[in-house]
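Recap for those who missed Tuesday's class. We walked through two folding examples back to back. For each one, the amino acid string is listed first and its predicted structure tokens come directly after. Nothing is annotated here on purpose, so try labeling regions yourself before you check the end of the notes.
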Amino acid sequence: MKQEVYSEVDNSTVSPLVQMSLRELVAAIVCGIGVGLMVSALMLIMNKYLFGTVLCRTSASADCSQAPLYSLIVSMVIGAIAGVVGLARLRVFRPLLTVIASAVALWGIEPIVFGMSWYWAILSTMFLFGICYGLFTWISRVRSFILAVVLVTVLVVVTRLMLIS
């Protein structure tokens, strides 16, 4: 006996976006808020107790003005590592693209943050990281990697221009 095999052809088209539920988007935003809390707390603690203490020993030290920048750099690197781990555990599509874009977009926030009192600095950093993680997670759903990188790059430039002005 000969068996006939029939194959059904799937005529449906593939969506240009990877599906993401509202719950997944909210989880990415909450992860960004957590990273923002970590970054801002580390930045304030390192500025006060580590870099501020080491670089501002003498009153005429020119490096003292760089202490907030150094604390931001170290805390952003630690936050980026935590963000990649958090987004990967949430199974977000392209977590590294989201984290790199958020870190580059928010790289120069120390003049904004250090002009506020500590509680407003923490809240504003949490808000900015939450918005960036949500935005870049949503944009990186594009299936074409090159198109996703181009869109993310444009949004990073727009975000940087908004923060600078």
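Example two. Treat it independently of the first, because the proteins are unrelated.
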Amino acid sequence: NAMESDTYTYEIAGPSRSCFDQIARARIGCVIGSMGWRDNNHSDIGFRIPEYVWQNDGMRENFKRRCLEAKDWYIQYLKTGQSNWQDARAILPISACHRWSMAMNYMALTGFMGKRLMFSEQADTVATAWLMRERIKEKFPLLASYLRPASDWARKCVEHVGDEMAQAF
């Protein structure tokens, strides 16, 4: 019961929409409120560029150009008056930055961190989880010390074993 009574609330802004989609899979012991794409104008949205793309000059410029083209198309689509934001949201790439708030009890947080702190996850998902852990560490260092990747608890790699799905990534 003690692990379920402590709840931590976060306001998160900046990770990609795909990061949000991964984090929002948390269900039990977690409540999430997302800045929706259906009824909000995202004309000023930014994009999260994956590290591999960022390190490659040609890919980075192509990625940026395509994101800006999508953003321009999104803005033009909104100006037509023929469609609504609900339709226009289909134009934005999943790398677009996203905002949400979430509350999670400590028991759920330990399970969440066990998976999301592992470096086999998407980079901004891992970074978000580590930053969430750091916020807890500021006020509750003992509790934060128990928020570790599952491989740390197992004392072996649990990300690359056998023919599991994680091996594909």
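Answers for example two:
The beta strands are 7-16, 30-34, 97-105.
The longest strand covers residues 7-16.
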